[in-house]
Design a protein that fits this description.
Elements (H helix, E strand, L loop, with lengths): L7 H4 L5 H7 L6 H14 L1 H4 L1 H12 L6 H11 L5 H12 L5 H7 L16 H13 L3 H13 L6 H13 L3 H10 L5 H13 L3 H14 L11 H14 L2 H14 L5 H13 L3 H10 L7 H13 L3 H9 L9 H14 L2 H9 L7 H13 L3 H9 L7 H14 L2 H13 L5 H13 L3 H13 L8 E6 L2 E6 L8 H17 L15 H9 L2 H12 L6 E5 L5 H14 L3 E4 L4 E5 L2 E2 L6
Parallel strand pairs: 3-4
Antiparallel strand pairs: 1-2, 1-3, 4-5, 5-6
Helix pairs in contact: 5-6, 5-7, 6-7, 7-8, 7-9, 8-9, 9-10, 9-11, 11-12, 11-13, 12-13, 13-14, 13-15, 14-15, 15-16, 15-17, 16-17, 17-18, 17-19, 18-19, 19-20, 19-21, 20-21, 21-22, 21-23, 22-23, 23-24, 23-25, 24-25, 25-26, 25-27, 26-27, 27-28, 29-31
């Protein structure tokens, strides 16, 4: 849009609103916005044509220019009688801004002049923008207040508004309230189902999300296209599958996407990459990525694939894909974290340093944490400590836990004690901190210090997080805890464990009892190791699946050294591929070897 002529003020009065409206799509710079604002003032259209004013406010509030939104707020405050549409335009801009909470202040009137200036009335759209703001800033209390307000205003019959309310509850962690809103809605559309499905999938109830998806997929078939499940539905269902590692369900959702004709949608492809990766099928994840045309790939496509390669121990491939990213796609924080994790899992110290030092975004605590872990695992403890001390912000609990873990790995008592002290100062009271420090002392046979740590755990009422594992057999998830005898086939599982011990002993297996409590006998130590949850899950997989079928296990904690050795030997003794997803990464065991090359 060229600058308005110098005679604009003199001729603006004769400018028709339609002519000014035609200029709206061409507004691009702050200068353009100010010129247009001046034209509205000079022509009198600012007050005589409220619809034109509201459209201008809407464009101004959603502009990417950092000064445009404050200008929109100033314009709103200058109006003697702002209309609802004026308010909504700025509410919308604030809700989408980096500071969405300001939208709630505006709704409450705190950003408007005090009475006697009349304040605009609220409508369903006002509440919708405010609810989007509460969802973005996870303000559960504000969501409840807005819920009460929409009931008072009598707009609870608006399907779109109630869907936005449901979405806000779900994103604020109020899944019970979201389900209650859903159940009380007399009319729902596919967006309503999608909002609940996404909330459950990304929250604490992914299994319920999958049940809802199957219900939705079955009940909506044959309805008008607008009411059928769509790519949003598919993405939410895939997210649920990824969270719980349900590969068979994920394959079913993929097939359903094909029937809907959305399997080539890039958002669906990105979700498929994430799902297949987290369900242990890296080959399928890569197949989906390379099926996307180069020009259609997004930053999310690359991030998901680099994360997949990194999680599965293919750090060099993750680094290569990162280096091959097209120039028109700019890496973000997630990209750098993904590739740094790949370097970390593969022990690529120099490459990790290169990527970290070349970052084009400010590194955050997670980036520093990955570099510290990379250095610590490589035995460069002094550099790891110096990195922590040189950060532009204080180290958090996770960073000191990372240093503690590195100190345990390399038997550095002094660093372990320092990290443990820092963790205590920060208020950390998790069992893993104590166990790591205890293990450092145990590795040096300092049993008095081990007892002191355990006494501290008892006095602080620290309880060990129980280990558990899942395995999926014929589409059904089976959960095991350490020493589990609750499974209906537990006797068969324990007999299978006896057979496993016999076979792997022939391959030279000796239990790794170093880190088991020192004050029990050697036989009890071996018993404690034998019935770890991942061993139970693998044993069940051996008896419940045909020979040669890949076994997939999900573990809530980091796999222990003994289970890692056992899984390698089982893969050789039984001719099985075993894929274990633990808290940090994937391990693929085949023919006695692990994809991590024992660097984990």
């Amino acid at each position: 849009m060229p600058p308005l002529p110098s005679t604009a003020a003199a001729t603006a009065a004769a400018t028709a609103p339609q002519q000014l409206e035609s200029l709206l799509p061409r507004l691009a710079t702050l200068s353009h916005y100010k010129q247009f604002h001046a034209s509205l003032l000079a022509s009198g259209h600012l007050h005589s044509h409220p619809s034109l004013r509201a459209r201008f406010l809407d464009r101004l509030a959603l502009s990417s220019h950092p000064a445009a939104l404050p200008h929109a707020l100033l314009l709103l405050r200058s109006l003697p009688s702002p209309a609802t549409n004026d308010l909504n335009a700025v509410l919308r801009g604030l809700a989408a801004s980096p500071h969405p909470a300001r939208s709630l202040l505006l709704l409450a009137g705190r950003l408007l002049p005090a009475p006697p200036q009349p304040r605009p009335r609220l409508d369903a759209l006002s509440l919708s923008f405010a609810l989007k703001a509460t969802a973005r800033c996870s303000d559960a209390a504000a969501t409840v207040q807005l819920h009460a307000l929409l009931i008072r205003l009598g707009v609870a019959a608006d399907v779109r508004l109630m869907t936005t309310l449901l979405d806000s509850y779900a994103k604020c962690g109020g899944l019970a309230s979201a389900r209650k809103v859903f159940d009380e809605m007399s009319v729902r559309d596919v967006a309503t189902w999608n909002a609940l499905l996404a909330g459950l999938a990304q929250g604490t109830e992914p299994n319920l999300a999958l049940r809802l998806f199957h219900r939705l997929a079955g009940s909506f078939r044959g309805l008008p296209p607008r009411e059928e499940p769509n790519e949003v539905t598919i993405v939410a269902a895939l997210s649920a599958c990824a969270q719980i590692g349900a590969l068979q369900d994920g394959l079913g959702v993929h097939e359903f996407a094909r029937t809907l004709g959305v399997e080539d949608n890039v958002r669906v492809c990105n979700a498929l990459i994430d799902m297949y990766s987290k369900c242990g099928s890296l080959s399928r994840a890569l197949e989906v990525f390379y099926s996307i045309k180069l020009e259609d790939r997004t930053l999310v496509s690359y991030n998901a694939t680099i994360q997949a390669l990194s999680m599965h121990g293919h750090g060099a491939d993750a680094l290569r894909l990162f280096d091959e990213m097209p120039t028109w796609i700019e890496p973000d924080e997630v990209t750098y974290l993904a590739v740094l994790c790949g370097c970390n899992h593969a022990g690529l110290v120099d490459d990790g340093h290169r990527v970290f030092n070349a970052m084009r975004v400010p590194p955050n605590v997670k980036h520093y944490g990955t570099i510290v872990d990379l250095l610590g695992r490589a035995g460069r403890l002094a550099e790891a400590y110096d990195t922590v001390m040189s950060m532009p912000f204080p180290a958090d609990i996770v960073l000191w836990q990372t240093l503690l873990g590195a100190a345990k790995m390399h038997g550095d008592v002094e660093l372990a004690e320092l990290a443990a002290t820092k963790l205590a100062e920060l208020g950390s009271n998790v069992d893993g901190d104590y166990v790591l420090l205890s293990n450092v002392y145990a590795s040096k046979s300092r049993w008095a210090d081990v007892d002191r740590v355990r006494d501290t755990m008892r006095s602080n009422d620290v309880r060990k997080v129980p280990g558990f594992s899942y395995t999926e057999i014929d589409g059904v998830m089976h959960k095991f805890i350490n020493g589990d005898k609750e499974h209906p086939r537990w006797r068969e599982i324990y007999r299978a464990l006896d057979d496993i011990r016999s076979r792997i002993s022939e391959l030279g297996y000796e239990p790794e009892t170093n880190n088991v409590l020192h004050d029990i006998g050697e036989e009890e130590k071996q018993y404690a190791l034998c019935y770890h949850s991942e061993k139970l899950a693998i044993a069940f997989g051996l008896i419940a699946t045909p020979p040669g079928e890949t076994l997939r296990v999900i573990k809530n904690l980091r796999i222990c050294g003994d289970c890692h050795v056992v899984a390698k030997l089982i893969s050789k003794a039984y001719g099985r591929v075993i894929i274990i997803r633990d808290r940090a990464r994937f391990h693929r065991f085949e023919d006695g070897q692990c994809s991590c090359s024992d660097y984990w």
